[in-house]
Every structure is written in C-alpha cells, then in structure tokens.
Amino acid sequence: MTQSFYSLSWTDVFASMVLVLFSIGLLRWWKIGLEKTLIIGTLRTFVQLSAMGYILTYFFGQRHWLFMVGLVSLMILVASYEGYRRQKTALHIPHYFIIITGVLTLTVILVLGSVLTFILHVQPWYYPYAMIPIAGMIIGNALNTTSLTVNRFVGELEHREAEIDMLLSLGAPPRAAIHDAIRESVKAALLPTVNSMMMVGLVQLPGVMTGQILSGIDPLIAVRYQIMIMYMWVTASTMTNILVLALVYRQFFTPRQQLRCDLLRRS
Amino acid sequence: MENSNVFTLAGVSYVIQNTPILTGITLDIRSGEHWALMGPSGAGKSTLLRLFNSLISPTSGAIRFHGQPLESTDVGRLRKRVGMLFQEAVLVNGSVRDNLTLPRQWVRPVPEYAEEQLTEALERVGLTPGHLTTQARSLSGGEKQRVALARVLLNEPEVLLLDEPTASLDPPLARKILRLIADLQRELNLTVIRVSHHPDLVRSFAGQVLFLDKGRIVEQGPIVLLDQPRTQDFSRFLREAQA
Asked: How many A/B residue pairs have CB atoms within 8 Å?
C-alpha cells in the first residue's frame, strides 16, 4: 500500500502553477493589489519546499541519534526565535525567549517521546521518517497557538488592569487576580483547534490524511494517523499554552505582588 | 493604639519611566484620622494612595506601617488590613453574594462566612439582605460602590483608602456614601485616606488635609487649612474647585 497511486513529476508541479496564475488574473481584474505578494509567495513556496525536500532526503539518510536530537533542537530554537521576533508584545516580557524555548523543549520531549515510544513503537526511537515530521507538526502548531495566547493575554491584562488591581487590593494572590485573563487567553487560542476536532471529517478532509490517501494509503490507516495527529496537536497546544502563561504571568508581577504596569505600557 | 502612627512616610519618591510622580513625601498618619488628599489632576494623589497598600512600591524613601517597614510586611495580610475603593467599583460576574465571598477563596483553609456576617455587611452599607442574590451587573453605580465597600469591610480593615469612589455618582448620592463612610469610620475606628476634589465634601467629612502639586506636598494639616490656606497654589486650587 505504500506505492504511489498518482506519482507527481516536477512538470506536474509546474502545471499546478497555472491555478495560481488564474488567481493572479482574478486579483488583477478586481484591482485587489495583492498580485506581487502572491507571486513572491508562489515562488517562495516552490523554492522553500523543494529545498526542504532535498534537505529532508539528506536528513532521512542519517542514522545517528545525536544528529536527530541536534536537528530537533535546532528546529525548536528557530521556532522559538521566530515566535519571539514576530510578537511585538513579547519583546518586553522578561525571559520570554528562554520561556518559550524551555516550554517547547519540554512539550517536544513529552509529546514526541510518547508518540514515538508508546504509540507508534518506532524502532529505533529516532527513526527520522517518524521523528522529523512529527516534531515539525508539534513545534509548528504549539508555536502558533502560543503566539495567539500570549498576545491575547497581554491584551487581557491591559483591558482588565482595574479589575486586577481591585483583586490584588483585596488580598488576592497574583494567580487568582489574573485567572480570568489566563482563562480567556487559553480559550481563545485553543478554540480553533477544538472546533476543528468537532468538524473534522464532516466538511473537509485534513491535509495529512488527504496527502496519505493521494499517495495510495488505505483510508482506514490514514484516518488512524489523522486521529492520532489531532490528539497530539491539541495536547501539545494545551500544554504549551498553559506552561507558557504559567511562566509569563509571573513576569508581570513584582515579588511584592504588584502588577508591572510599566511592561503593559511598553507592549 | 489610639493616636499612634499607622503610616509613616519619610522622603518617599516614585518615578516611572524617568518621570517623577511623587517627590520627597514625608507624612505621618495616625490611627482613626480621616485624611483628604487634594490637588490638581496628575498631582500624584492616586499614586500616593496606591503606595499605602503596596499596589506599588516607592522608588526611594521609606514607608512604615505601625512602625514596621512596609516591604517586610506580608503583602496579602497588609492589603486586607488596608482596604481600598476605586473610582469605578469593579465587581466580578455573578451575584452580590459571589462578590462578597470572593476574598475567602484565596485563604486556606477556606473560612466560612456566617449568613449573618454577609447580611450585616450589606445592612451596614445601606443595602438589604435581599440584594445577596441580585446579579452584580444589574446594580446601579451607587449600589455597586456599596457592595464594593461591604466587600472591603468583610476583610475587617483598619485603614480605608478611597480613590474618589464617588466621582461618578451624582452629588446627593456621593454625599450619602461619604456620610456612610464617616459613620463607619467612627463605628469601626477606621483610618481613612481619601482622594477628593471637592472642598465642600472634604470640609464635611475629613479631619486632615494634604495638598499635592506636581508630586510634592505643598500643604498639610488640620481641616482649617481649607479656610486659611498658607500658599497661593492651594488658595488658587480651592478657588477654582469651588467655582
């Protein structure tokens, strides 16, 4: 079942660009002004993914555990830097880069480790065909939802400053004073993932599963993979969100349990 | 403890992002006194108030609470002993009962308020036991401030900080709430430190007045200062406030 039903040549890939040309035509007709960006995006998709294909082929040829661990660590570092850089609010949060790197590392160790060892029973555990794509999925998804959570959290703190001050003035510990802010932030970041779990299979087939079916995998096997991936996503996202906020909220308080308004003003 | 210093401030300054908000504040506040903090907008009145229950800490200088350095007191306990009411009463979603019992969630073991304590707290602020089940969001502005006051009183504070809690209320209602606070002050021997803009309201209820301008104390002393201001700045401020 691993044989491809429809093998895709580079000529076929170039042919698929015609679809994008059609989109560019539509944008131009309606003077949306996004044509140039779309052309750049189309070329970058081609170049980046082609390069990634060659890089993955090289990586998949490696057979040393230390190489794989190094590679996953590099993925975490790059992702953390990207997550840190793309958030203007996070730039002012003390230790944010360290927090996000630490939490991503812990999430990868626990979730990736569980999937490889106890679920897929991969032998050896660092088998690159399993380890690299799954690590990529965990890191990418966790990073996206974490960015949403932290942005929302800072917004909630600004919005709820009076409420937080009131709670602190009544003797509430910081964690109790910002509990509602944390709850709303985590909910907002996780709802899209949870909603996609509600809708999956009803309207659209998820990308991973579609790709597997197209390449000739039995749909029953493909769905099993997809179910595992969905569970893995939601676990990684929940874990990262909660842990990041558990460490980030402390940065907004002094040891005297005072809200650091100076950080909010700079956000 | 009668007439002993509750708060002693010595050379207290507060700077935020290189901007001085308070400079060299030296002040003694004795038990049972009712202070009115006056001054133009941006004078540092609210900032000074927030220093008393450690919502912020001074950049320099020392604050003592009953002779003990403020930074060495347990902050949770301090904030219960030094209650605060804000300009806008912030109530959490839920009933009045939920709001009154909110502070007990943070204490282990969880203390049980007897029903009588809750009804007594409500009656003290001029509400009825029937309000316990009312949704907080359906209360009027005055009722919200009363619930916020009852909630603070359940912590059994010895000091009450008031950051213009009557600013958004109409004058008769504001006067009513201030009368209530003055009565409570006598009944519970509270020390009250209150930000106020209105000389009339200060004259009616406060015993001491402090006039701040640009973060510095310009005048401080007994309430007669309102009739005999020693500086031109205070005199001008009072004229403008009364106009």
From this structure: 59
A interface mutation test: which of B46, B54, B55, B154 has the most A CBs within 10 A?
Answer: B55
pLDDT < 70 positions in chain A: 1-5, 88-91, 265-267
SS (H, E, C) B105-124: HHCCCCCCCCHHHHHHHHHH
| Amino acid letter for position A135 | A
A169 CA to chain B: closest CA distance, Å?
6
* Closest by Cα among A148, A151, A234 to A195: A234
Q: Does B98 touch chain A (CB under 8 A)?
A: no
Q: How far is B69 from chain A (nearest CA, A)?
A: 13
How far is the C-alpha of B104 from the C-alpha of B171, rounded, in Å? Answer: 34
CB neighbour list of residue B18: distance below 8 Å, 6 or more residues apart = none
- How far is the C-alpha of B242 from the C-alpha of B166, rounded, in Å? 17
- Measured CA to CA, the distance from residue B167 to residue B163 in angstroms comes to 9
Instruction: Give the Cα separation of B156 and B82 in Å (integer).
Output: 9
- 3-state SS track over B158-173: CEEEEECCCCCCCHHH
| Cross-chain residue pair B76–A162, CB shorter than 8 Å | no
Task: Give residue for tokens 């609010």.
Answer: A89
Quote the tokens at residue A178. 């910002």
Do B220 and B209 contact (CB within 8 A), yes or no?
yes
Number of other residues whose CB lies within 10 A of the CB of residue A254: 13
**Which run of H or E residues covers position B222?**
strand B216-222
Query: Which residues on B lie below 8 Å from A181 (Cβ)?
Result: none
Instruction: Let me know if A138 is exposed, middle or buried by CB neighbors in 10 A (0-12, 13-18, 19+).
Output: buried
Q: Which two tokens stand for residue A233?
A: 């996503």
Closest alpha carbon to A185 in A266, A249, A256: A249
Coil, strand or helix at A162: helix
The string of pLDDT tens digits covering residues B125-139 is 889 999 999 999 999
Residues in chain B: 243
Close Cβ partners of B39 (under 8 Å, ≥ 6 residues apart): B45, B211, B212, B213, B218, B237
Return the ∠ at Cα A254 (arms to A163 and A106), rounded to 5°: 95
- Using alpha carbons, select from B208, B183, B84, B42 the residue that is nearest to residue B125: B183
One-letter identity of residue A201: G
As for the ipTM of the complex, it is 0.91
Per-residue confidence (pLDDT) for residue A90, from 0 to 100: 63
Q: Could you say which of A169, A172, A180 has the minimum Cβ distance to residue B106?
A: A172
pLDDT at B104 over 90: no
**How far does CA A7 lie from the centroid of its chain?**
29
Tokens encoding A77: 């570092």
Yes or no: say if A84 and A96 are a contact pair by the CB < 8 Å rule: yes
Which residue ranges form the domains of chain B, and what is each CATH number?
A: 5-242 (3.40.50.300)
Q: For residue B76, what is the nearest residue in chain A, using CA coordinates?
A: A171
